[in-house]
Amino acid sequence: MRARGFTLIEVVITLAILGLLASIAAPLTETVIRRGKEQELRDALYQIRDALDAYKREADAGHIEKSVGSSGYPPKLQVLVDGVRDQRSAKGAKIYFLRRLPRDPFSDPKLKPEESWGLRAYDSSAQEPHDGEDVFDVYSLARGKGLNGIPYREW
């Protein structure tokens, strides 16, 4: 009676094919994960920037208390979540702009969401952003470039 089983050659060829498939799949998986984080970053930037613009519109319309000479942008990001008093309401109602502050998906998970962003004040340039009395814009503190070739700081 003849023994059944695989020959050494068949096992080696099978392992070589599996190794080749794994070497192709690993970079592809990494790219898919990175693309997902980049989409999260895009969404977070959109949410925060949309909330900043909404705050500015409300301040310019006189619905939010605004001091003379101020830009009309919030003094810090947390204000967008905590809300501000609506000047139109006699009952002291608040206007809220975000349910929660999104975090930069490329930042250290130990950081609080508000610490994960770079802040740009109204009086700073886009090339040399710095924080100040207000929050005009946010940017990612992540190093490196996106899959589109643009540094994350410039998104």
Automatic annotation (TrEMBL):
Q: Which NCBIfam families match?
A: IV_pilin_GFxxxE
Indicate what this protein is called per its UniProt record: Type II secretion system protein
The question of whether DNA-binding is a record keyword is answered with: no
Q: Which keywords does this Swiss-Prot/TrEMBL entry list?
A: Methylation
What lineage is on file?
Answer: Bacteria, Pseudomonadati, Pseudomonadota, Gammaproteobacteria, Pseudomonadales
- One Pfam assignment: N_methyl
The reply to whether Transmembrane figures as a keyword in the UniProt entry is no
- Which InterPro entries does the protein's record reference? Bac_GSPG_pilin (IPR000983), N_methyl_site (IPR012902), Pilin-like (IPR045584)
